[in-house]
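Quick one, tokens below:
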């Protein structure tokens, strides 16, 4: 009987540790759900069209305000000239509150306050835009 309890304890510990590890991982399904709000203005496909906002394929590593064929706000162009490059950190800050990162941005999005939502959206974007 002792062996049974010990085995159950090990099994429970294994699941609790693996559950804790996965809780820290971005949720791609949530990221996809969150991106549904962005679809009206952005596309993700390689070679996809710019809509109201730029196509986001290849955005990670790109200097802000530099995609050809997009009419960017003066504020976004200026941030690019200052050296703003889209990476996980800058994208997270922008998704949290766009106007804090690019004052005067024309992007009509209030932001995502929850870090886990931003991480999930970024993971989804990276998967869908060739960054992984």
């Amino acid at each position: 009987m002792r062996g049974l309890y010990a085995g159950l304890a090990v099994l429970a510990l294994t699941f609790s540790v693996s559950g804790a590890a996965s809780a820290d991982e971005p949720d791609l399904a949530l990221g996809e759900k969150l991106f549904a709000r962005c679809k009206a203005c952005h596309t993700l496909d390689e070679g996809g069209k710019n809509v109201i906002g730029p196509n986001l394929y290849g955005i990670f590593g790109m200097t802000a305000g530099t995609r050809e064929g997009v009419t960017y706000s003066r504020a976004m162009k200026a941030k690019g000239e200052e050296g703003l490059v889209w990476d996980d950190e800058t994208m997270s800050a922008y998704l949290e509150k766009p106007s804090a990162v690019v004052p005067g941005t024309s992007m009509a999005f209030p932001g995502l306050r929850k870090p886990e939502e931003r991480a999930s959206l970024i993971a989804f974007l990276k998967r869908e835009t060739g960054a992984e």
